[in-house]
Structure formats: C-alpha cells, structure tokens
Amino acid sequence: MTSRFPGSWLAAAACTVALAAPASAQGVADAGASAQDQPADQLVPPTSAQDFTADQLDRVLAGRWRPDVERARDRYRHPKQTLQFLGVRPDQTVVEITPGGGWYSAILAPLLRDNGQYVAAVAAPPPGKPGSTSLQRRFAADATAYGRATIVTFDPKAPVLGAPGSADVVLTFRNVHNWVMADTAPAMFKAFYNVLRPGGVLGVVDHRAADGTALAKVKSSGYLPTASVVKLATDAGFTLEGTSEINANPADTKDYAEGVWTLPPTLTLGDVDRAKYQAIGESDRMTLRFVKPDAPAASSSVQ
Predict the structure, then answer these.
(1) How far apart are CA 203 and CA 83, in angstroms?
(2) pTM
(3) Distance CA 255, CA 64 (A)
(4) Measured distance CA(211)–CA(217) in Å, rounded
(5) Under CATH, which number does the domain 68-291 receive?
(6) Measuring CA to CA, which residue among 157, 155, 95 is closest to residue 125?
(7) Nearest in space to 96 (alpha carbons), one of 115, 122, 66
(8) Is 245 helix (H, G, I), strand (E, B) or coil?
(9) What is the pLDDT of residues 278-303, one digit of tens each?
(10) pLDDT for 147-181, tens place per residue?
(11) Residue 112 near residue 169 (C-beta atoms within 8 A)
(12) If 0-12 CB within 10 Å is exposed, 13-18 middle and 19+ buried, where does residue 84 land?
C-alpha cells in the first residue's frame, strides 16, 4: 500500500481506515461472515498521519536524486527528526527561505510533490546582476522527483514571500545570521508572519552562540544567541512553541578566528588543522518552532 513517491499517502491512509471500519449495510449475513473472517479484537488500527509522514521521509531520504555528498551530511543536519519536530507533513504548503544549492529542497520538494506544495524563496539579485540558476537547473533536471516545486524571488529589504496566509509552514536553515549581519532580519521575520496562515509554523535552525553571549560580540562570527532569534520572531508576532536539541553539537567550542565557517562544511582554513575541525563536525545549532497565533475571535456587543 505504498508508492515510490509520497503522493499516495492520503489514499493509503483512507484504505487503511477502510480496512479497520466495521461492516456496513450489506446485510446481516455479510456482516457476520466478515466478523468471522476478521474478529473485531484483531482489526488493524489505522495508521496515523505522523506514521505516514515518517515513512515518506524515509523514502525521500533514500531517494536516488540525493547525491552522496548531501547524504553524508544527514548525520549533522538530522533532516528526518528536524522536519518531524517542526511538524512538516506531505499535504502542506511549505516555503523554504534561501535554500542555497537545494540541500533541503531535495527532501522537501519530493515529500510535498503530489499532495502539497514546495516553494523556494530566493533573494532577487541586485539590479544589473544575473541571478543564480543552480536551483532552477536542479529542479529541471529531475521533474519526476521535484514535480511542481516553484521558485519565488523577493527583495531582502522589503520581502514579500507570497499571498498573505497562503503557507502552512515557513522554514529557514542557517540563514538568520546572514540577515542579522545585513540588518534585514526584522523585515524577513515580518514577511514570514505575513505569508503564514493563522496557526502556521515557522521553523528556524541556526548556529548557536554560547548562552549569555551578547549579540554584538558574535554578530560577525555566524553564531547567534538563541534569545536574539526568539526576540526577532516574537517581535514579528510569533509565539515560541518549542525548542529541540536535535541539532546540538557539544564538541563545538564556538571560539574560532574565522567564526563558524572554520568548521565543516566550509573549512575556511583549508588544510590548517583540518582533521581537528572535521573531528568536531558541523556547528552546534538551535532548532526552534514558532507558531503564528490564530486570529482573535471577532468581538460581539450586546444589543
């Protein structure tokens, strides 16, 4: 009852529920026979949407379209656990902000291909400069995997990511530090709020500074205090719903001359102490789940 791609998960869920449903008005004799074939105490319970999502994530992560160099980073980025924590499902509209070369696109777009919608939001290039086409090429090279994935561009200083309330989930991985350095973070978080429906989720993963560190001290290092990111989100109207240590790395000392880029995958120092930094692995990261509050109920006056 499974398919190569996640598109039939809803149908599969319906079939599973149907198998567990009691016999209906087809006659007492049929109902009795059905009961003999499958006693009520042995009926298979319907599989939850959460279980279906987990199964589909396993299939996507094993997808032939994911190159080995990207699979190798799963142990640092924990994509299945991260997306489960953030509540991503195959039937949602998900906007990923500045996905770069498409590491998460190769997971999200196939997951959402049939029953949802994946949108990659990319910053528009400065006037007179060409935009990057690497993501377009990636999508075009494998339409079977990427399906209806789309790309939208936005002005980083006045971002609009789609129609208001059109997204179920907004995700951003290792980008907030760039916006903080460029002083565009407040505008970005407001754009996240605007494009999400009430009750929609904002998921943020970024390099985490040591607790109590002042933002001014680490702003250029790529690391951010968790409290600073939470403030950006709550100032935009979000509520912090949960935090996770899925992407924590206690071996990261966060005290490198070249900042977070000293560590893999960048390894800015080249061969200098390369083995040392490879042994540390990728950065210690915060994983935060925010929610856009439901719209307040309309007030009524007594006549």
Answers:
(1) 9
(2) 0.83
(3) 38
(4) 12
(5) 3.40.50.150
(6) 155
(7) 122
(8) coil
(9) 999 999 999 999 999 996 544 444 44
(10) 899 999 999 999 999 999 999 999 999 999 999 99
(11) no
(12) middle
